[in-house]
Amino acid sequence: MEDERRTPPSLEARVTEVLEACDYEVQQAVGLEQGVIDWFATPRSSFIRPRTYFRVLPRSPEDLNETLAELESARVARKADRAVAIVMSERLPGGYAPDLVGRTSNVLTFRRWLLEISGIAEDARQRAQPSEQERRGQTYLPRRGRLADGAVVPLEPFIEAWMDRPDRPMLVIEGPPGSGKQAALKHAIDRAAVRFSHDPEQATLLVDIANMYLASVMQIALDTGAVVPVITRSSLLRAAPMQEQAWRCLLTARMADTLGPPPPGIGVVRIVLVPPSSEEITSWYRACLGSQELTGRLLRARAENDSFRSLSGALPNLGRIVSAVKSIELADRPASIDAWIASVVVAYVDAMKLEERALPPSGMEGEDALSRYLEDIALAQFAMGLRRAAEFSVPRRFERTRGALDSLLTWFDFGKVEHKNHLLRDYYIARKIAREVSAGNSEILLRYQLPPFVFLFLALIAPEVSAQVTQGRVAQLDEKVRSEVERKLQLTFAHLLNRPVGMVRARLREIRDGIDRERATALARSFEQIEEELRFIQSLAERTRLWETAPDEPIEEVAVRPVIEELGRELNARHPAVTLVIDVESSVRVRAMRDALREVMQCLMENAFHATVMGTEDRASCVTAVTRPIGAVIRIEIRDTGCGVPPEDRQRIFEPLVTTKKGGAGKPRGTGLGLPIARRYAEHMHGHVGLDETASETCFYVDLVAWTEGA
Q1: pLDDT at residue 501 is higher than 50
Q2: CATH value of 128-274 in 3.40.1350, 3.40.50, 2.60.40, 2.60.98
Q3: How many angstroms separate the CA atoms of 18 and 393, rounded?
């Protein structure tokens, strides 16, 4: 035993190098036996700092039981917490299995000890503890790959055979976006971890060396053949040149292109992932779900919804979709297939846990920065189109932990800055709305005509907001129904009104022509009253048509005075007793639709003429048209000396079919549509019609944007 402990200094120096790299303090002490140095290691940063006595043996002892007994005795004598003998040879005698938990003293090969002390073995054991679904193969659909010679082979056995090759080349996995390259790497690492858990002395581990901070320890592990490297990120590998064994790695085509060609003597094998067929995916879902009801719902959803078929058919999403489908309790399963799809999507996104893996987008802070980024893009894409959405900044980078990014990339394009899947777009619109409403911005509920799935998602993620949205939608729907009924009634009313006017007038002419002059004179007043009623009906029909029909002409430069002068001549011809005063400069011009402006002025001036005719006899019958600038706006005022508008009617007069002119005694009869038409037409020209309640006379006005050259 004493000879076995007298090792060349280089062996103990190598062990010391590993211990110090793993943040252990190494101590040498004069041994209890003459001429022998005792070695101890203590963790520097651990809360519990057990002291380990260790020896380095060049080869395996012949009698392990004797060695273990002597090692335990030495541990006790040296008051150490643990003891380990590190054997630099490859193997220990068959039948021996170290007990790292139950025994305080153990004999380990350098290979096994290196994996344990560095934490590589513990990481592998964690990976080898799969969930129940993983044990049934329910989170991964096995891949196939095509080699350069055209042969198609199962990917997982091919990788395992490659790991055992002493002259192992670089193995590059290729495939289009969404083919599951990262998932294939993860699955290969997990399978190697399971094999290690069954045979830790002999099985080789696949390790992502880009995630290892113990670069020197990893290099030793590579040299011993204990691990085979996988490279998912090259950023940590650029600081120092890669050693030869690190080039004999497993990686994706993107990483291979980043690293460049390997050194001479190391070959490159490329294998292209072959996408599974729709039938293979369906069969896999049947096997994973088991339940005929769940499988039937999933297949129906895939058949009826293109976005769901795309989402559930992308390889990185398969395991999460299975988990999402199974997470919906039987009692909570909606009857509607769309509602069921929404429930699955919500569970799917929850399972991704993106926030734990994402770095914030540029310019955004906070734990939910990624969600806010995806929400903003979703709403911009829906409301403003992709060109506007593309103005958003792109996140700097995202952690590619456990395939979350692979799933994200199946439905979001960081290059084009857009959601590729409408279901996920609608989900993030719903999240955006819930966030805005919670912050007090309820106006967002009325700003957009939202897709139906947004409301399904809201009902799941924010029921209280969903209730507000539903109420708003009911009100909007009610208003829409009312408007449509009103529009159809107006069209029908106008048609029915116009149809008898011509017939009645024709019959009236026949009566006039068929009676003698004396009787015609006697009935003249009756004939005039009938004609007045016909004019009113015709005016009502025309106004009804105008009320329903929105102006549709370009906005242009329009001089105001000629419009008022032309209308004034027509109205004065019908009401000669009314004086019209036009106080409008010829230079006044506005931005307006020419015919629409004429209709607005027709309504306002006719309203003023009628009001003046209906006024009391002690007032002069006068209508005045005045313009005045208010900043960049031209206000056109129509004033009259009529009896005014009662205070209780000042808000109602702009509503359809409300009039204060009841007619009778030779006075004009209002249709109740003039002022509403004037206001509606003005709004189409980005203007406004109102009543100046502060004026001494009755004063209606229209505000329009002043015409400016070059504007």
Answers
A1: no
A2: 3.40.50
A3: 44
Task: Work out whether the CA dihedral 408, 409, 412, 416 comes out positive or negative.
Answer: positive
Facing residues of 626 across strands? 583, 637
Q: Which two tokens stand for residue 505?
A: 């007038």
Q: What is the pLDDT of residues 390-420, one digit of tens each?
A: 444 444 444 433 446 778 888 888 778 889 9
Q: Give me the residues paired with residue 664 across strands.
A: 667
Judge contact between 641 and 615, C-beta under 8 A. Answer: yes
- Percentage of the chain beyond pLDDT 70 is 70
Give yes or no for a contact between 589 and 663, defined as CB atoms under 8 angstroms apart: no
Q: What is the mean pLDDT of residues 176-193?
A: 82
What interhelical angle do 120-127 and 181-198 show, nearest 10?
Answer: 110
DSSP assignment, residue 148?
T
**Helical H segments across 439-462, by residue range:** 444-447, 452-461
Provide the CATH topology of domain 2-118: Trna Endonuclease; Chain: A, domain 1 (3.40.1350)
Asked whether 579 and 632 are in contact (CB, 8 A), the reply is no
Query: What pLDDT is recorded for position 148?
Result: 92
Neighbours of 81 (CB within 10 A): 13
Residues 120, 133: Cα–Cα separation, whole Å: 25
Question: pLDDT tens across 637-650, in order?
Answer: 998 888 777 776 76
Q: What token pair was written down for 189?
A: 């690492």
Say how many C-beta atoms besides its own lie within 10 A of residue 13's C-beta.
10
The one-letter code for the residue type at 637 is E
Could you tell me which residue, 7 or 573, shows the higher pLDDT?
Answer: 573
**Domain at 553-705, CATH class:** alpha beta
Q: How far apart are CA 495 and CA 385, in angstroms?
A: 41
How far is Cα 353 from Cα 190, in angstroms, rounded to an integer? 20
Sequence-distant (6+) residues with CB within 8 A of 469 are 433, 445, 450, 455, 458
152-154 and 170-174 beta bridge pairing:
unpaired
**What separation in angstroms does the CA of 106 have from each of 93, 96, 112, 634?**
14, 10, 11, 97
CA angle, residues 247, 251, 257, in degrees to nearest 5:
80
User: What tokens appear for 433 in the block?
Assistant: 């709305």
CB of 703 closer than 8 Å to CB of 634? yes
Query: What is the C-alpha end-to-end distance of the chain, expressed in Å?
Result: 100
Q: Which two tokens stand for residue 390?
A: 């593309």
Tell me the pTM: 0.54
**Burial of 405 per CB tally in 10 Å (0-12, 13-18, 19+):** buried
Rounded to an integer, what distance in angstroms lies between the CA atom of residue 134 and that of residue 142? 12
pLDDT higher than threshold 60 for residue 259: yes
Q: Report the Cα 188 to chain-centroid distance in Å.
A: 32
Helix (H) / strand (E) containing 537: helix 524-548
Q: What does the angle CA 340 – CA 322 – CA 331 come to, to the nearest 5 degrees?
A: 40
Q: Where are the domains of the chain?
A: 2-118, 128-274, 278-352, 354-461, 467-549, 553-705
Q: 291 Cβ partners below 8 Å, 6+ apart?
A: none
Bridge partner list, 24? 43
Q: Which residues, including other chains, have CB under 8 Å from residue 664's CB and lie 6 or more apart?
A: none
Compute the 3-state secondary structure of the chain and give helix, strand, coil in percent, each to the nearest 5: 50, 15, 30
